[in-house]
Amino acid sequence: MPPFHHLLAAPLEGSGWGMPHDASLDGWRIDDLINETSVFVILLFAIMVAWMLWACFFHGERHPARYDHGTSRRSIAVALGIAAAIFFVVDGHLFLNSVLVWKHVFGNFAWAETQKETVRIEINAHQWAWAARYAGPDGKFGTQDDIVTLNDITVPQGVPVIFQVASTDVLHSFNIPNMRVKMDAVPGMVNRVWFTAKETGQFDIGCAQHCGANHYKMRGVLTVLPLEEWKRWAEVASANSARAYDAEDKDAQWAWDWEKHARI
Amino acid sequence: MHTTEQEDLQPIHPEPEGFWPKYVFSRDHKVIAKQFLWAGLIFLFVGGTLAMMIRWQWAFPGKPVPVIGPLFLSDQGGAIGPATYMTVFTMHGLIMIFFAITPILIGAFGNYCIPLMIGARDMAFPTLNMLSFWTFVVSLVLVICSFFGQLGAAGAGWTTYPPLSTNIGTPGSGQTFMVAAIFVTGVSTIMGGINYVTTVIRHRAPGMTYMRMPLTVWGLWLTAVLNVLFVPVLGSAALLLFLDRVFGTQFFIAGAAAVRGGGDPILFQHLFWIFGHPEVYILILPAWGIVSDILSFFSRKPANWYRGSVYAMCTVTVLSAVVYGHHMFMTGMNPLLGQGFMILTLIISVPAELLFLNWLRTLWQGSIRTNPPMLFALGMVFVFGMGGLTGLYLGATATDIYLHDTMFVVGHFHLTMAAASFMGSLAAIYYWFPKMFGRRMSERLGKVHFWWSAVFITLVFTGQLISGYAGQNRRLYNPYEYSFLKHLLPLNRWTSYSAFILMAGQLVFVWNFIHSLVAGARAEMNPWQVGTLEWTIASPPPHHNYDVIPTVLRGPHEFADPLVKAKLGRDWIGQAEPLLQELPGSSTPAAAAGRA
Hints:
The structure holds 2 protein chains of 2 kinds. Chain A is an alpha+beta fold. Chain A has helices at about 5-10, 25-60, 75-105, 110-115, 225-245; strands spanning about 120-125, 130-135, 145-150, 150-155, 160-165, 170-175, 180-185, 190-195, 200-205, 220-225. Chain A has 2 domains: about 15-105; about 110-260, Immunoglobulin-like, CATH 2.60.40. Helices cover about 35% and strands about 25% of the residues of chain A. In chain A, the strands form 2 sheets. Chain A has a 5-stranded mixed β-sheet. A 5-stranded mixed β-sheet of chain A has the order 4-10-9-6-7. Chain B starts with a helix and ends with a helix. The model of chain B is unreliable at about 585-595 (pLDDT under 50). Helix content of chain B is about 65%, strand content about 0%. Chain B has helices at about 5-10, 20-25, 30-60, 70, 80-120, 125-145, 175-200, 215-245, 265-300, 305-320, 335-345, 350-365, 370-395, 395-405, 405-435, 445-470, 490-520, 560-570, 590-595. Chain B is globular and about 75 Å long. At the A-B interface, α2, α3, β7 and β9 of A face α5, α9, α10, α11 and α12 of B.
């Protein structure tokens, strides 16, 4: 083979450079905010480029320069006016929507915690896997009937799912792009994140924080099932975990009491 | 301060004789500037090569790397393994920031421009200046040691977050060397910063009021202020991390099960970003200043609302200290605190917009000359525009949830910190090369270099923005392990091709730079017809810069003045050049006002 044969390899066929499919109930709030901001951003950038091109073509060497320091009251007022307009419209839109989205959805654990069917999962991240724990029928974490899985999280469709995320070694970041959620897993802290799945199916769970050589392999799978099907799955999974329970294996018995008032 | 006082403060010292004091352990700011420039350019090449390795890995994961593979990776069959990969992107980031951009923009042009442009004979502390460079050399040695460290070079990412950066995640000596290198280079930067700050305050020529300083000096001076204030914070973070690594302390180690410790990993992130966010302005303020001047010089028109640009840069400098929390939205930060950092972050866009408007309005109704320095200045405005606008999404807590730690962030900060400071550095190199080396660079090759670089640097970082928008997380050895990223291989491959072409295009610059050094046409005193002080003396300037310290009469951007045109028959006038009744030494009201 010639030494540079890889350089000759053509790019593969592909399509769809947009955001990954949104399978969550509230992800559109982020998507819309990104897309609305893009309208402003692209418009501002286009004006800037057009201005520069116009100046370079029509105010070139042959054009006589105007002796103007731009310090007239009117000139400064125009500059401040434009800056203020951009700030209040573009930045203001982003700010208000971010505050509202956090208040009503992503930070609204008070609501998520009080829903009847809410599913609670503890995530213990470590190099390089996601260990997950569900409380099981008794509703208590750290008991024999807990459902324990690795890199494999099954949740029901249409009900809030709350994760409490921690790490035993280095920083990780629990990331489900299709659900538009992300939260760092920090040793010594318990962080929270929640979403509601809109669609059933299988989705990637990734690590978003560099955590060592195999960071790229820290992939888990999120399976969303219809609620009734999920309940049957949970029953079987709990029985299986109880059978596999080994009182001697202390490492496998990580858990914490569900923190109702964690910081996020 | 009057002329005699400045003459007393800065007497002419004889030029040192002999090779060592003249070229190696020199205390002359112009020689030290060139030393920093050479060091920076060499490490820019190293950092660029590492970037090509990352791009190769994303285009052809796990395939043997051409050229570099057989030379450095023969033990891995010429391919990059996951453990090597993490050292490659870590060293790329650290080298580019601390050992390429910093020495070029701040070490070289800070040293070269500040004394010359304010009419001083040297820095306030020439010996400290020399020490600053040689301390920097010590840190370069530590960087080189890191490459040969057991278990490879540093691998915890340029942000060096613990616990990964402690012995738990990266036990090799390469990481320790790099933490030490950051500390030592910080010491060098602080020495330089103190020198710059003092020089601007104490050594301005008579009549060189703050509001007559070239914007280049303003940018470099504000950068120096930020360096003096915030590099010590980085120093303490690096020192504490060093203690954790070497002496078993637990400042940044905590954990529930596998790792027990009483410290706090998030504490490091606070220290790091209190430095780290000002750092992005540290890297861009010199380029902002240089570009603000060059846009005026080559539009042959006064800089629009000079004071506005000064106030905008000062406001950014102050605000840069209070926005850092937006790097930590995903750490479990209280949402209310996140909102506070979000509003502060969005406010910083206002002075940046004013600066942009000033740039655009400086061009308007100008008489634009498209020499290479101007092209690179315009390129800087273009890429910084993209970088600045894409920052909006990341400063807001809602949109950041999805985009945090994706390639979108990588694209954004490369457009602002890499592309913009690259363009700014090259504008500066093409612009001051005749003064520094007494020869002209080729204009034609300069233009080829500009278009080549501008097109492909935009493609590279736009490719990164798009892959990030599509969800690709940063620092993935093989992104295609994830099913939702598999389709991005062609995009990443095209982006990589753009990067390889960009890198190859730099050969044009290397040839132009080296060929012009030896065989370029002799440069006259003032090839660009500009009024700032450095262009009133020989190219290259004598050891003591100014035989007589000049008396400054006006601002740096006096172009297209009809009165000057009528009296002198040209469109520019020097900052210290008398016109009509203004005679040097006579205290015109304007000259006296700013220096009471």
